[in-house]
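Final report, section 2: Outcomes. Of the targets proposed, Propionate 3-nitronate monooxygenase is the one most frequently requested by collaborating groups, and we therefore present its record in full.
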Amino acid sequence: MRDLIRPVVVAPMAGGPSTPALVVGAGHAGALGFLAAGYQTPEAVEDELRVVERAGVAYGLNLFVPTPPPADVESVHRYRRLLQPEADRYEVDLPALRLDDDDHFAEKVELAVRYRVPLVSFTFGVPDRVVVDALRAAGSRVLVTVTSAQEARRALAVGPDALIAQGGAAGGHAATTRPAGYRGDTSAAQTLAAVRWVADVPVFAAGGTGGAADVAGLLAAGAVGVVCGSAFLLAEEAGTRTVQREAMLSGAPRRTVVTRAFTGQPARALRNRFTDAYSDVAPVGYPAVHHLTVPIRAAAARRGDAEALNLWAGTAYASARQAPVADLLAGLLPGD
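The predicted structure is given below as tokens.
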């Protein structure tokens, strides 16, 4: 495991930002990047694995642990009815509820085993011990993302090689397994301390890093590495949508909020009209809510309308800048 640890890790950012070029660029710059398997077909994931394998760099692959169907299905039905004006606004049809979706989990695990991916991380829960054992037998090192000491204890029971302590300041989805009560009000340092208290494995820290001082502080607090996402959203190699790049660079005073409005799972995003209108009424229900809002978000993206898009970003997003990933990494390394 120690040979794969880097001070800065480029976080997996599903939905487009994480590309093979970003991961390879990070690897060539002496860091480590993660491919994001979430939302992709197994075929698309394998294509990305082939590209990165050919580059010969150390890298990771992130997988979504399947979540059970919503406990309160009626609340998702109600939310669907509430979203009808948005469907009318963007001239799209809302899909029927899709309550079961494992994101091709078994097939993606099999790919990770077959390609002997150096690092495999999990979010949205803890994989079964048999999955962890299969990956480790193939030579992979396994990481589980957690947001609390309680989640860390559960993750440790399956024998991971390391944990990722995700603070509430992190952009995008929270890995929490208790989405109903999640507020995103803990810092990366607080979460790191809580997780390290119960963990007997290396712990990475994630959330709210905008510069080298933030990275240095988390390393000094005991993190073996710092996972950064928002700092790389504007990287030249990232697949971030133009509309999000423009929103981040506009200079408009946008704060970030934690919302379930887009996917049914708490996630930190730039505040916009959609988060204002639906955050208070959105149910717990990932991935059912995610599938429900996909047509609205796709139509908004086509129109270049940032007000109905999931503009995932952490609290330090304003520090992000446009540059090659190697330059961005140099600005995050302590001492630079």
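The chain is about 35% helix and 15% strand.
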